[in-house]
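Tokens as discussed.
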């Protein structure tokens, strides 16, 4: 059976396009190592995709993929790139200039995406441009090798004459050189970030001027299935827009404080920041993308400088004292902006510029060397990681990153409670079953947690000891389970006496509401 010549040409063209794209990406990896990792075209296009993705779609991705949402996005971009590259290769077999233009056009797209980033410099366009030129050049080389005139006397409709061995060697050599370039880029990138890695390794947390008291005995109920009272750093949730975790060199880090109402603008390096009194405080953080019963909450012991003290040092007054600025805009090195009420950070709560987390320097993924932590506010209005600038302005004058994407400008944490055990659709045996979890209402505290089964009366759960008003509290209720399917619900009452609402709402615009419930099927008794 004779192979379809047209199909064979299309497959050869697609192969040429994909190999050319791989070569372009490899060269871009090498060029990005010389510029900065965030300038890689895949990363730049991914960041642009995150920026333009509708909020509802982004929230869906976080729900479905969790911390793997960035990996899924990257794989999606690579899949689209491969499809376009295959099309460019097939087009090039018929119209070589058009195919080369399509291959190079993705380089221009990547360059435009890189330059559109808030923190971009002109050199950030170079990796994508190098990728486009390389892809177009390699496509020309491969297609020229394929499009040899067929020998005289070939039957009508025969494919172009292809030296299979020669073409195979050319493809193999291209892929080998591309792999070498990509590996060199990775090595150079690792070398470029070695200073940041070494600076963190050298960094030693100073002792706290105001240490936190020990976690109260009984705060951690140690119920199997319930997370520990203090969340280990490796398990602490991460939700942000950074496709590549910034690795900031602590020795080169600077913080700039300026703006409206700043009488004495400050520029501090890390040593100067650490010369101020350091406060240790246990604080639970919560992401606004956390659905009812979701995993995006964590509790840690933070070490840092009181933000209010630093602002007063700069001459800042809160609006209640006549200050002109009501918004503190924090800027991250990756271009993220987060707006926080000035009144809130200066009202006496433990709002920190944190340098330590659970007795260690901040991990890179959680903001090393300095991040903001403000108890009582969702992360998108308080918890800026990789902090580089604090600018005083007003809510009327400036909308931060998420506010421009349909989120509320002010977002205090809502009272929430979660059942961690039993898990949904568990099948416990009849008898005594520990129903347990955590509840939080940062800066108000948790006063009571109640549980009910199948819509029955609310039963008060036993609470773990309180570690101040800024952390979650563990709770447990022992249920005499009977066989059959049952729905268990939980609700919390905060320290002011306000009961968690049962009204269901989504995460947008300022956090989800509703009661967490799990359905279990208790096995029949023996």
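Sequence:
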């Amino acid at each position: 059976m004779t192979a379809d010549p047209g199909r064979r040409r299309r497959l050869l063209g697609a192969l040429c396009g994909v190999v050319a794209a791989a070569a372009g990406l490899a060269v871009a990896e090498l060029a990005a190592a010389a510029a900065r990792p965030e300038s890689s075209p895949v990363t730049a296009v991914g960041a642009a995709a995150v920026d333009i993705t509708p909020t509802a779609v982004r929230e869906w991705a976080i729900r479905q993929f969790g911390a793997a949402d960035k990996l899924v996005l990257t794989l999606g971009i690579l899949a689209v790139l491969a499809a376009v590259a295959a099309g460019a290769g097939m087009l090039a077999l018929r119209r070589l200039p058009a195919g080369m233009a399509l291959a190079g056009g993705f380089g221009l797209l990547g360059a435009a995406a890189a330059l559109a980033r808030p923190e971009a410099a002109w050199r950030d366009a170079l990796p994508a441009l190098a990728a486009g030129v390389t892809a177009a050049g390699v496509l020309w080389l491969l297609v020229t090798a394929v499009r040899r005139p067929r020998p005289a006397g070939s039957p009508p409709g025969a494919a172009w004459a292809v030296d299979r061995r020669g073409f195979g060697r050319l493809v193999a050599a291209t892929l080998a050189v591309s792999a070498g370039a990509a590996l060199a880029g990775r090595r150079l990138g690792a070398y470029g970030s070695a200073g940041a890695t070494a600076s963190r390794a050298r960094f030693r947390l100073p002792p706290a001027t105001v240490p936190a008291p020990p976690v109260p005995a009984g705060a951690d109920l140690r119920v199997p299935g319930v997370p520990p009272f203090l969340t280990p750093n490796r398990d602490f949730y991460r939700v942000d827009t950074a496709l590549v975790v910034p690795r900031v060199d602590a020795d080169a880090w600077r913080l700039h404080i300026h703006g409206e109402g700043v009488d004495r603008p400050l520029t501090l390096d890390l040593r100067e920041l650490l010369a101020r009194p350091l406060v240790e405080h246990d604080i639970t953080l919560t992401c606004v993308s956390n659905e009812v019963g979701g995993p995006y909450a964590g509790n840690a012991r933070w070490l840092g400088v009181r933000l209010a003290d630093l602002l007063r040092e700069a001459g800042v007054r809160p609006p209640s004292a006549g200050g002109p600025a009501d918004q503190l805009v924090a800027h991250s090195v990756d271009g993220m902006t987060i707006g926080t009420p000035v009144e809130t950070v200066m009202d006496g709560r433990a709002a920190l510029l944190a340098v330590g987390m659970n007795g260690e320097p901040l991990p890179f993924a959680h903001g090393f060397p300095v991040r903001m932590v403000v108890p009582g506010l969702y992360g998108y209005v308080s918890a800026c990681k990789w902090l580089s600038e604090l600018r005083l302005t007003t809510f009327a004058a400036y909308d931060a990153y998420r506010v421009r994407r349909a989120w509320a400008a002010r977002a205090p944490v809502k009272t929430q409670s979660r059942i961690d055990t039993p898990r949904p659709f568990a099948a416990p045996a009849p008898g005594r079953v520990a129903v347990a979890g955590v509840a939080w209402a940062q800066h108000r505290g948790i006063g009571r947690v109640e549980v009910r089964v199948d819509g029955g009366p609310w039963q008060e759960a036993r609470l773990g000891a309180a570690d101040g008003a800024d952390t979650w509290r563990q709770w447990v209720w022992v249920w005499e389970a009977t066989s059959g399917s049952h729905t268990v619900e939980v609700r919390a009452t905060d320290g002011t006496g306000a009961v968690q609402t049962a009204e269901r709402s989504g995460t947008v615009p300022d956090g989800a509401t509703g009661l967490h419930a799990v359905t279990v099927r208790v096995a029949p008794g023996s």
